[in-house]
From TrEMBL, chains A, B:
Name assigned to this protein: FAD-dependent oxidoreductase
InterPro entries: FAD-dep_OxRdtase_2_FAD-bd, FAD-oxidoreductase_2, FAD/NAD-bd_sf, Succ_DH/fumarate_Rdtase_cat_sf
FAD-dependent oxidoreductase 2 FAD-binding domain mapped to chain residues: 17-466
Cofactor(s) it depends on: FAD
Organism: Nocardioides oceani
Keywords linked to the UniProt accession: FAD, Flavoprotein, Oxidoreductase
Keyword Flavoprotein in annotation: yes
Amino acid sequence: MIAAGASGTTRPVTGCDVLVVGFGCAGATAAVEAAEAGASVVVLERASAPGGSSALSGGELYLGGGTSVQQACGFEDSAEAMHAFLSAALGPHADEEKLELYCRGSVAHFDWLVDHGVVFQPSLHDRLTWMPDTDDGLMWLGENAWPFTTLAAPAPRGHRGPVPFYAGRALMDSLVAAASAAGVVTHTDTRATELVVEDGRVVGVLARRFGQDVEYRAERGVVLTTGGFVDDDRMLADHAPALLGRGKVSDGLDDGSGITMALAVGAATRRMAAHETSLTYLPALAARGMLVDARGQRFVNEDAYPGIVSHAAVAHRPAPYWVVVDETGFEELPERERWGVRPAYAAEDLDELGAELGMPEGALAATVAAYNRDAERGEDTWFHKDPRWLRPLVAPYAAIDVAAGFHPGAREGVAEGGGVVGFTLGGLHTTPDGEVLTWAGTPVPGLYAAGRSTSGIHGDGYISGTSLGDATFFGRLAGRSAAAGPS
Amino acid sequence: MIAAGASGTTRPVTGCDVLVVGFGCAGATAAVEAAEAGASVVVLERASAPGGSSALSGGELYLGGGTSVQQACGFEDSAEAMHAFLSAALGPHADEEKLELYCRGSVAHFDWLVDHGVVFQPSLHDRLTWMPDTDDGLMWLGENAWPFTTLAAPAPRGHRGPVPFYAGRALMDSLVAAASAAGVVTHTDTRATELVVEDGRVVGVLARRFGQDVEYRAERGVVLTTGGFVDDDRMLADHAPALLGRGKVSDGLDDGSGITMALAVGAATRRMAAHETSLTYLPALAARGMLVDARGQRFVNEDAYPGIVSHAAVAHRPAPYWVVVDETGFEELPERERWGVRPAYAAEDLDELGAELGMPEGALAATVAAYNRDAERGEDTWFHKDPRWLRPLVAPYAAIDVAAGFHPGAREGVAEGGGVVGFTLGGLHTTPDGEVLTWAGTPVPGLYAAGRSTSGIHGDGYISGTSLGDATFFGRLAGRSAAAGPS
């Protein structure tokens, strides 16, 4: 920190009420709320255009409790059912205080997004996949899979923009337009380097802009929405080593810069080891057969949300992971949904196939025998996969090496990191209102944060849509808090 | 922090060269080294006597590379073999810089301990157990189990005092005597509350002593050896939620006080989610049969070090966990080694037993069938348990609920937390020399730390003896650094 405005400085100073650092979806919603509360708002973005990692994401927002899109698709839902699902799926140890706010406010948040130009088609994508290849606005995110079906009435809550595959760009285009309409000023190519503290209060930042040192002064507050730290290997080694060597889901700028700046002024972090994991397997293919670990053991219902399945594998089971299917299962999946995936091994005999895959003798055959027994009577007694996916597997069998990744139809390079990609979920410790806390648990005056630079609603689990979801929801609250200014 | 020595203060001030906060094994070794380097040393201890959690521990020190005890027991060893083992057992992501120092310096550290009165009998305890019931000074800590046997020549490296079961008290008695002999002054019943910083340098602490505010001034440095944070549920929720609701391995004062004090002056933490886990199962019984999870699946070679087995269960497999044995296996274990454990279920038929345990139909029978096939040919193709433990299991079979815990012969209450107890391994980010680092990676002048208030040699794994081992090893280095004073 520096004593800003020191005599003799010649760097340009830009003043505003609320300064937002980082123009992903958390920054966008914070900026809009602050501007609509009457504050003059400047948003800084390191890249040459707004968007951040949000714009490169799948674009799902986890919303429910009875949104108009859910209703149009014929689903009843409640905040309580949404809470029961998320508490389990994001847990153990989901942040109950933030989660309850998030679920109670979800319909209103949906309406706010729609009012600000975000578009969701009122149609359901009813297939198992990472991302729909359609413009459907609603998708299942594992609500209809065991064990969640035993906890709450299932309703699909994945809301997304009207584009196939990655819908994050559409979301960000809408939010950037909303910010612009609200009078928010954007400075791109501007990298905040340090928070400025005066009399114990954060009053602005120092930054680099087109090779020049510049300063921003915020009368009311600074909101950090700079993203996580998956792009900084030193921070990963210190706090989330499980992501070392894995692929990075980010725009390349998630280097924890906001977290680091806040730590330097006494801010606290929370749950820095938490992270999301995606494994490059095809959910619709695995559900038609099985997913097994290096020893040929099944370990999860393959129709669960792919993030849950990925975490069950990567965090808990020995690699490599194999999708084992038969001819019927493979051919049932339309070619365009195969994303270039092809079986690496095939055999008439399971002992032969298991041996080729380096599994213990008899392991794969025993797993398939137990599966087929269950499939014949229509009940997966091991992992409770929905009966609609159960069918005894018959020779010839094929095995797909999940680490080989996807090819056409998906982003390239996704098979890096052994077919495992991820991002960080830990970060600054904030109140639900977005105040950044010190290690002593008191707010850092003038400093707010939201999105993946903070620890959000997540415990040890993750479901798609909860990152953009909590970033936009708590981004709005942080923007409003900052606009309210010093009390 | 406060501006100490402010005019008008009436609190008593005690001066010294090096102030050590916390009198467990890290504090003891830091104090001895500092005193032997010529510094006047005061050690503060919150409890009414020295010892801390170290004195309540098993007392194992992980030492090797060819100690005189290893030699007397007929084992050759090298720093390289020790490093290869620990790098794997404490990994992935063990701290390679600290680990290399630790292994290279291990024989010298052993000699230093012996020179300072620590006693190790030159005899090997060659049984699978959490803690020997003898005075043997050397024990295996999983070096002779797969996969470690494939990485380095196995040698036992668990060094311990000449008492049955918990040997931590004997270790601490020796170290406390050594500190006293070196002229170290001890203030018990004294709780440090705040670090005192002047001109950017830590120069002492404020403390409470018998209900009075007191101050300590350290000319050369303050060494924090205050232990981990397993006793603070708020810190666990923020940083290591996996330990919430588990039993706590501590003296009840491991509330992260040193970490918290250091954070307040800008210190950084590292790997706060890392933790040790112990499951209350009998290693020697599990090795004679099998350990299975809630679904009746084996998941580890049961002859591995119990800490490895516990982590494999608790972190990665669904509870409850069962030890399944037959009559021969159970009766082979002498009564005094059974620690009061009794089978909860018994049956002639495995399907019946599996059903009683709530496992999927056929699961347990399939696991035992695969195990027996392997046992007959003397090779555990699944998990590579040593052939000496392999014997086909025969009816009647018994199952022991691991969560029921131990009874006579062990500490009471150990079955709390579902039979899972643990402690934290994350903490302050230090250099190998014990300097506490800021978030920016620069030392906090005047501040040093060691033991479980720091992140030590551990990555995601844990082996007994590496906590007292790294605490005494790096405690000595921190004491020496502090005695060297400002550069």
